[in-house]
Design goal:
The complex is a heterodimer of chains A (90) and B (629). Chain A is α+β, with helices and mostly antiparallel strands. Chain A is built from 1 helix and 5 strands. The longest helix of chain A is centred in the C-terminal third of the chain and has 21 residues. The N and C termini of chain B lie far apart (114 Å). Classes of the chains: A alpha+beta (90), B mainly alpha (629). Chains A and B meet through strand 1, strand 2, strand 3, strand 4 and strand 5 of A and strand 7, helix 10, helix 11, helix 15 and helix 16 of B. Strand 5 of chain A pairs antiparallel with strand 7 of chain B.
């Protein structure tokens, strides 16, 4: 899975993957939950992706320290993103 | 303890490593200062300094890990105490309890007040030392989860070996016929088996206790905190213990051959190798039926391109900014390991914030200082309250941590993560965490090396402010916000009319062409158009005035006759036309209407006669009447 993707999980919850951080231990996503009609909600999660038999599985990261250190990376991503953002992508 | 370990910066290291540790620390700090202050001359590069600093950090971690592996813990009154402190601890507890009894019964002992006061001081000293030992012990309890059991990290290899040996022994004993065991050998094996069982149970018991203590001391929720969750250990036991436990009641009878017992060809089938329990497996005996963190399969996926067309600004810019603003304080916390209450705000805060308060936070941010924005954001997510509460609960830890962090932050993002790396690298952190810290650290170093982060004195908030100021132009308000701005204004129209036209624009009730016409037409024509539009909007709700074709034919054109409406002004000394004109002219200007009511009639007549709009009005009325005939 890559960022900028809308995923539907097996329980029909939808998320847009806003950002990703790839580490040697796995791939992590900053995700925003969407409503059924794909409108943004106010609920954010950090997912860890696992690939099994070619299928992608998402697990919510709830380890506080891991979550915290991923946040540092997501913040840095954002900082770099905004430095390159031209403001007219829309 | 005093002989084997020394305490340094809240860590225990072997006494023999003390000098080496201090020197490495100096090397680390020296190089850090070099980077931090950019005191590099031409003789040494950033890369060299960074490498030296990293090497020192690595060796520091090794020393800490080496010491940890040599620590032992003993249980006393439901607590696990470092063996080196154990005797002292037991004595302290005994003395404290005795003193407590004495103080409680001072009357019987015939204490003087002075004696009681002294005892109280002694009691406090004892308490302090006891707590110190408990904390130091708890800090060194690092637990890993394995097959649903909690084991001290330092015991892991031994535990795995014991499990493996036990399981092998079980197989051997179960198949005694084929091995041709003598009764004596079987007896010995059975004894070994039981000893291993006891050893395993003991390690599991201490691990479980350690897990509870660790979590309690470190403020991590026990039902959620699962160290190393999902990370298979290389030395993980290859046998599923639950399978063995199920079989335990069927422990082999000595010398008896049982045809139903497993033979050597089958053991694999009853030992699902490397099969780890699912996350929903009971944690320390506590069922977790509503375990929220289940692995969920991705059923469908698609590109978010279309989604971003609609929401990019809101999500990536607005939400992202909230993330940034709230995320930077998170960095401080990463560095200094503030208490868990603060963690709750700073880690959950940004997520909470970016979602729950992201949009309002952004609006505050672009219009105010970063500080205000953060305040508002946290306020919206109840974060201010929690943060303040965190401070109150543990003010010393928080404030010391924050002050220390802020004071040293400068290029100190690198420093902070460096420090975190030392601790993280030591023991007990999940691999993912180490990797995430390490990655962030590298990136921060790279930014600094590229000169992207040069402001030494910047605190995180200043940093956020700088980023926002730097990229202010990119943070445009969303379209809806823009449309709500006052985009139409004519000085010769009343405030009320201007406001009404703006409300039409904001609600997309009139086209750009009409707005343009309202702006450039001479006042009289503008007023006519305004009146016509007003009426159409009132009557038709969703009127479309986008093209001339849609405009009503002249025959259908509503007149400017306001006679249907109740006149707000009437002066019997004026002509009907004049009254009508004044009502028309000041229909949306109640102040003028009120002013006219108290003005002399001759002045009003003079005003109307001098008003070129009046002549046009009369003319149009005549035309209107002609058409209606």
């Amino acid at each position: 899975m890559t960022k900028d993707t809308i995923i539907t999980l097996e329980d029909n919850e939808k998320y847009v993957l806003l950002d990703e951080v790839e580490l040697e231990t796995g791939k992590y996503f900053l995700a925003l939950q969407l409503s059924e009609d794909e409108q943004p909600t106010r609920h954010y999660e950090i997912f860890e992706e696992e690939i099994e038999d070619g299928e992608s599985y998402m697990t919510i990261v709830d380890d506080p320290e891991l979550k915290e250190s991923l946040m540092v990376n997501f913040t840095l991503n954002y900082e770099e993103y905004i430095e390159n953002y031209e403001g007219d992508e829309d | 303890m005093e002989e084997k370990f020394v305490e340094i910066d809240d860590k225990l290291i072997l006494k023999e490593d003390y000098e080496k540790y201090k020197k490495l620390q100096e090397v680390y700090n020296y190089n850090y200062e070099l980077l931090d202050n950019e005191n590099l001359d031409n003789t040494i590069s950033v890369e060299e300094v960074t490498e030296e600093m990293n090497n020192a950090e690595k060796e520091l971690n090794e020393i800490i890990q080496k010491a940890y592996l040599q620590m032992n813990f003993k249980e006393y009154q439901d607590k696990l105490i470092l063996e080196e402190y154990y005797n002292e601890y037991v004595k302290l507890v005994y003395d404290r309890d005795r003193l407590y009894d004495a103080m409680s019964n001072n009357g019987e002992y015939g204490y003087t007040e002075e004696m009681l006061e002294n005892d109280k001081k002694d009691f406090e000293k004892l308490e302090e030392r006891i707590e110190r030992i408990e904390n130091l012990s708890a800090k060194n309890l690092h637990v890993v989860e394995i097959n649903g059991k909690y084991i001290l990290e330092k015991d892991l290899d031994e535990y795995n070996k014991a499990v493996k040996d036990r399981n092998e022994l079980y197989d051997a004993i179960s198949n005694n016929g084929e091995y041709g065991y003598t009764e004596e050998i079987l007896k010995e094996d059975k004894k070994k088996f039981e000893m291993l069982e006891e050893k395993i149970a003991e390690m599991e018991k201490i691990g479980e206790k350690a897990f509870k203590i660790y979590n309690k001391k470190n403020g991590v929720d026990i039902t959620k905190g699962e160290p190393n969750e999902g990370e298979p250990k290389p030395s993980e036991p290859s046998l599923d213990e639950t399978e063995l436990e199920k079989s335990t009641p069927e422990k082999p009878n000595l010398g008896e051959s049982n045809p139903e017992e497993p033979n050597l060809d089958e053991p694999k089938s009853k030992k699902p190798e490397q099969e780890r329990p699912k996350s929903s497996e009971p944690n320390m005996g506590e069922p977790k039926p509503s375990e929220p963190n289940q692995k969920r399969r991705v059923k469908f996926f698609k590109t978010a391109k279309e989604f971003y067309k609609k929401h990019r600004k809101a999500i990536l810019i607005i939400g992202g900014l909230a993330l940034l603003v709230a995320g930077l304080p998170t960095l401080i916390h990463s560095f200094m390991y503030l208490n868990s209450v603060l963690w709750g705000v700073l880690v959950n805060g940004p997520l909470h914030l970016a979602g729950e308060a992201g949009l309002p936070a952004f609006l505050h941010t672009i219009n105010s200082t970063v500080g205000t924005a953060i305040h508002a954001s946290y306020d919206a997510a109840s974060g201010v309250w929690t943060l303040a509460n965190g401070m109150a609960l543990n003010s010393t830890a928080c404030q010391t941590g924050l002050v220390a962090s802020l004071a040293r932050l400068g290029g100190g993002l690198t420093f902070g993560l460096g420090q975190a790396g030392v601790v993280a690298g030591a023991v007990g952190l999940a691999k993912g965490t180490k990797a995430a810290i390490s990655k962030a650290k590298e990136r921060l170093k790279a930014r600094k090396a590229k000169g992207l982060d040069t402001e030494e004195s910047l605190t995180p908030l200043e940093r956020a402010k700088q980023i926002i100021n730097k990229h202010k132009s990119k943070f445009k308000k969303p379209e809806k916000e823009e449309s709500e701005e006052k985009v139409f204004y004519r000085e010769d129209l009343s405030e009320e009319v201007n406001a009404i036209i703006n409300s039409w624009i904001a609600n997309n009730l009139i086209s750009e062409e009409i707005v343009e016409q309202l702006s450039v037409l001479p006042l009289e024509e503008c007023e006519k158009l305004y009146e016509k539009t007003y009426k159409e909007i009132s009557e038709n709700e969703e009127i479309k005035l986008t093209t001339p074709e849609n405009e009503p034919k002249i025959a259908d054109e509503p007149t400017i006759n306001t006679s249907l409406e109740e006149p707000k002004y009437y002066n019997p000394n004026l002509s009907e036309e004049m009254n009508e004109y004044l009502n028309y002219k000041f229909k949306y200007d109640p102040e003028s209407i009120e002013a006219m009511k108290t003005s002399p009639t001759d002045q009003i007549i003079a005003f109307v006669n001098s008003d070129p709009g009046y002549a046009n009005f009369i003319e149009q009325m005549k035309e209107e009447k002609g058409r209606s005939k």
